[in-house]
Amino acid sequence: MKLAVIGAHGKVGSLLCKRANGTFDVTAFVRSPAEFDEGINVSLDIDITNTPLSKITEALKGFDAVVFTAGAGGKGLDLTLSVDLDGAVKVAEAVQANGIKRFILVSALKTFEREFWWDSFLRSYYIAKKYADEVIIKMDVNYTILQPGMLVDTAGTGKIMDPTKVDAYADEITMKQSDKLSIPRDDVAQVIVECLNNDATIRKIIPLISGGIQIKDALALVG
């Protein structure tokens, strides 16, 4: 499988490239040269903010799967809308135009529920994620939308909560206790790899936080 990782310079993207390398034929799309494990292809052909859809579509020709894990990282409203909203949708449109088999989007926990995030300092980020998710689920693409809680840099555990129970649990915890709704970035990267190997996750929205179930087994509960 030829895999394109959009946002490979980010923490999740970098971890994903390392995990996927060897299993897939990975190309890391970045804005500037970056260090990756030997054997990972690097492309500068896509700048999410500035590259038009036509060139994104051309750059993604021939790929079997695309992962979008780019983000503005809280660097202002304009960039958040350009990357997290328009960037995600542009890449999905390129996936659709090319007939690419899989598209995996890294979003955020409970994007569809304004009450959950409206009073948060992440409001602008969540607005962008909400509308990107809503647009993409209506498109003719084999999406998998991952909605992780707070991303942390601790070592991955290889385990998550049953995704079918995460939303109800998050309702009890609330956004103000986001540390209880966290997941290591490396576990998100492992989830992406497992989803690429599991067609039952196609056209699914999967909330993610740490838990006690092995990732592969937890994803089997989604179908």
UniProtKB/TrEMBL annotation:
- Which part of the chain is the NAD(P)-binding domain? 7-198
CDD domains assigned: SDR_a5
Q: Which Pfam families match?
A: NAD_binding_10 (PF13460)
Which organism does this sequence originate in?
A: Cyberlindnera jadinii (strain ATCC 18201 / CBS 1600 / BCRC 20928 / JCM 3617 / NBRC 0987 / NRRL Y-1542)
Q: What name does the UniProt record give this protein?
A: NAD(P)-binding protein
Matches recorded under InterPro entries: NAD(P)-bd_dom, NAD(P)-bd_dom_sf
